[in-house]
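Justification of computing resources. Each target in the renewal requires a structure prediction run like the one illustrated here; the chain below, 102 residues long, is used simply to show the kind of job we budget for.
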Amino acid sequence: MKKELRVQIYGQALTLSGDLEPGYVERLAGTVDRKMHALAAQTQTLDTRRLAILAALNLADALEQLQAKVESQPAALPREFASRLEECNRQLESVLRGAARP
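Resulting structure tokens:
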């Protein structure tokens, strides 16, 4: 059953719906919010769209690095971690597909 949840990311209130636990979604939103604020401080840009794209690229890079590590050493990582990593990848791809729409 889909749940609706309001989160704040970079000063914008968003209503999200999905099957994930609210606490988990809030942690994800917090990660994106912190990344956008950190990038804003580093780049001195106020363009929210550009910051969102840069945050997505940074998070995608971190995900790719973790996936490469998982693939090169699958026995070294707990199965639950690998499963969560795959779920994060699916969610990130879903968000990026949605952000690509005009």
